[in-house]
Amino acid sequence: MKSNPDLSNVKEILTSVVSSPGKVTVVGSLNVDLTARVEEFPAPGETVPAADLTYGPGGKSSNQAVASSKIGADVAMVGVVGHDAYGSFVQRSLEDAGVDTSRVVAHDLPTGTALITVNAAGENTIVYSAGANRSVSRADLQAAADVLQSADVVALGFESPASVVAAAIDVARSASDANTETSAHTNVGPIVHADQNNQPRNHRNNSGEARKTRRSPRIILNYSPIIDVDPALLNGVDIVVVNEIELRSLGERYGSAQLPTQERGGLANVAGSKVDEHVGAKLEDAPTVRDSASSMAKEDGADENGRFTTATRLVAVMSLGGLIVTLGPEGCFVVESEDSSESGDVNPTRDGDRSDRANPTDTVPTTNAVYVEGYPVDAVDSTGCGDCFMGTVAASIASGQSLLDSARLATFVASRAATKQGAQSSYSSAEELADQLKHDQANQQIRS
Q1: Which residues belong to the annotated binding site for substrate?
Q2: What is the CA radius of gyration of the chain?
Q3: Contacts of 202 (CB under 8 A, 6+ apart)
């Protein structure tokens, strides 16, 4: 079991997020979660007894919106529900969590549904039916252009079709060159966006200094589930969040590829495709969890340095500002591009014991990579913990925190979600988290 990071640092990050909330717009899935709890997962063809079936609000994007709102962000949700009781229930749950749902529309389709099984160890399996989530149109996104373009962070994921993700990026970016805004956020690292010629432009908000910056939201993509997409779409993304299995799948797809440089028209062409289809996605091409985990175990890249190397290559090939890989109870690691960090280090370093050693190679560019320790908890249910992590990162970055500090905070917040049942119902408010941090710090002092 790894030791905890410095909780005082997490408390400072949380306080800063709450005191300087940013704007987050989440585009994507709104579902109802139907959950059955069992002792062990059934084998193929096996029937096992379960506790009473429960239902609650869900959807990866909806979960992320609730997590962002509870941590203090000003959150707007963009998506589609069905004309049914589940749709009304999901939308009402978002509103109860403080999320603006005025850009959520209802279509004559079933609300998205997730069938979840949770075993005695708190692990879960999920079967997802997109339903109305597949019907998001470009017109729906254009109608939400105000909250997309005014956001500090736009959070996206692939429970929505890839064409919807591309269209959301295009709408969010379309006004960035025309708008300026005074920003007084502090402690913000370099922000890297592309101009109309796809050339990077870097902005840094220096501590205590209000200055004019070009207005362009940071795009954070939760690359989950893994699908094949047109490489042009990835050029609009600043930060990607994945788990270990998704990292492996992305490494197989993009690790050795060379993405073409796309002008704005390239992204617009993707965004203009049919919005009810995944761009180039084939369900049978997506590896199963069992297949991915098995192949990872057989690869040399399954060790810690190998995972960092894979992540570093992806940051370069996908032209990302940063990549976060979540490791469940073990924490996460953060890789930032040379443009987004002060120094480079392709070898993993421990959070709190960081040495910025440059180690460039012919194939792996200089980057900054830091491992963030996990927080040991007695896990009850891991459902929605990854979404809690993603939503917390979005809220933290929107408030002006660095990618690394955002990952530190998200690691703690997601660990607390694992101690409660359900997805959105397990997310803590900023006040509850502050109380928990105080309690945990006191316990650390007693043990020391």
Answers
A1: 31-33, 59-63, 159, 387
A2: 21
A3: 190, 191, 192, 339
